[in-house]
Design brief:
The chain folds into two domains: about 5-155, Vaccinia Virus protein VP39 (Rossmann fold); about 160-335, Rossmann fold. It contains eleven helices and 18 strands. The protein is elongated, with a radius of gyration of 22 Å. The protein starts with a helix and ends with a strand. Helix 9 (about 230-240) links the parallel strand 11 (about 220-225) and strand 12 (about 250-255). The strands form four sheets. The protein has a seven-stranded mixed beta sheet, with helices on both faces. By secondary structure, it is of the alpha/beta class. Helix 4 (about 85-95) packs across helix 5 and helix 4 (about 85-95) crosses helix 6. It has helices spanning about 5-10, 10-15, 50-60, 85-95, 115-125, 150-155, 180-190, 210-215, 230-240, 280-295, 310-320; strands spanning about 25-30, 45, 65, 75, 105-110, 130-135, 135-140, 160-165, 170, 195-200, 220-225, 250-255, 265-270, 275, 280, 295-305, 325-330, 330-335. It binds S-adenosylmethionine.
């Protein structure tokens, strides 16, 4: 699949407008894609908290770590769409670039706010160059004449904080980060209170669904939270541990489509359905297949989805039959039971 922001990000290195240092370059929110093959994996440290992207980088031979050096001669960065999170990441990139000589290079697609992000980097340091291609922009500058006061302010823009009167801790950039998603709420309202045994929440986010399962269903003995985004899973752990539930809890930072850790009596999920602006039905379909493989025979799947997403065929193929238990506000709640052979 094409990644226009990544392709555009590497243009100034390919045309030598920006020099690749012989060692110590860092790539924040790195993603794998064919343009990465032009880089020397030994000379680049990648940071990536989203497990599928981290896995793809590691398979290709890149080192991925959340532990970064004090400073770097070159910082590549792919800012996300959420403004506070993007500003915080740009500020972190500038803080990481070696004072004066270090270069920050950022790229964003036009639909994800290229112009805004370019303006934001320009507020932190003077831009030295920019290019437009692939319906995206790449822009860069050296870490000199940095607005240190603004940098200090922006670094904390995506910091964890209390939301919903202290019921949860969350942070900008996570799915529905400052509210309960209406689809998740519909699933919570529809879930029976007699869920029991060992269960899992696939794509747990900062723990909204899991918290409600533990609150509503006293017969649950164990609940495993699976989440690909480490920044979300860390907060889910904080939120669930603060509940003092008697059920055992485990937290797995992983791509659920790679397989679940144990057989489950029930699974709840509000699966991901887009990357950037584009709907991606294949993501939810992958979650349905993972749930079907992960449930024991007779185990229950409870999931919610945008009504228009085509999951019926996958449900037919994996579970044989299913029921729509609620259909409201553009969302559908699906219940399926794993059949024996
Ligand atoms: C629609 S959100 C639901 C979040 C939360 N359960 C809620 O109800 O608010 C889907 C979640 O799945 C996570 N996710 C996306 N792809 C994933 C994958 N391959 N494996 C595990 N989690 C994934 C996303 O990071 C996101 O937190």
């Amino acid at each position: 699949m094409k990644d226009p922001a990544l392709e555009t990000l590497l243009l100034p290195l390919q045309n030598e407008a920006v020099a690749m240092p012989t060692s110590g370059a860092v790539f924040l929110r790195a993603r794998m894609g064919s343009p990465m093959r032009s880089l020397d994996a030994a000379n680049l440290l990648c940071q990536q908290s989203f497990a599928p992207d981290k896995d793809a980088l590691e398979v290709a031979g890149f080192s991925v770590s959340e532990e970064l050096p004090q400073s770097a001669p070159l910082v590549l960065v792919l800012p996300p769409r959420q403004r506070g999170e993007a500003r915080a990441l740009l500020a972190k990139a500038v803080a990481l670039a070696k004072p004066v000589s270090g270069v920050v290079v950022a790229a964003v697609t036009n639909t994800e706010g290229a112009k805004t992000a370019e303006g934001d980097l320009a507020k932190l340091l003077p831009l030295a160059g920019k290019l437009s291609k692939n319906k995206s922009r790449v822009f860069w500058g050296q870490a000199q004449e940095v607005d240190e006061a603004l940098l200090a302010q922006w670094v904390g823009l995506d910091a964890p904080r209390d939301i919903l009167d202290g019921r949860f801790r969350s942070r900008p950039g996570l799915f529905a980060w400052d509210h309960i998603d209406p689809a998740s709420q519909l699933l919570v309202n529809t879930l029976p209170t007699n869920l029991s045994g060992v269960g899992a929440d696939l794509g747990a986010g900062f723990g909204v669904l899991a918290a409600e399962v533990l609150r509503k269903c006293p017969k649950v003995k164990m609940l495993d939270l699976y989440e690909a985004e480490k920044r979300a899973l860390d907060l889910a752990r904080d939120n669930i541990e603060a509940m003092q539930s008697e059920a055992l809890r485990e937290y797995y930072w992983q791509d659920v489509t790679k397989g679940l850790r144990k057989p489950y009596d029930f699974i709840v999920s509000n699966p991901p359905f887009h990357t950037g602006k584009a709907d991606r039905a294949d993501l939810g379909q992958g979650f349905i297949r993972a749930a079907a493989r992960g449930l024991r025979v007779g185990g229950h799947l409870w999931m919610v989805a945008n009504r228009h997403l085509p999951y019926e065929d996958t449900l037919d193929k994996t579970f044989g039959s299913y029921k729509i238990l609620a259909d409201e506000g553009g969302y559908k709640v699906i219940h399926a039971i794993k059949a024996g052979r």
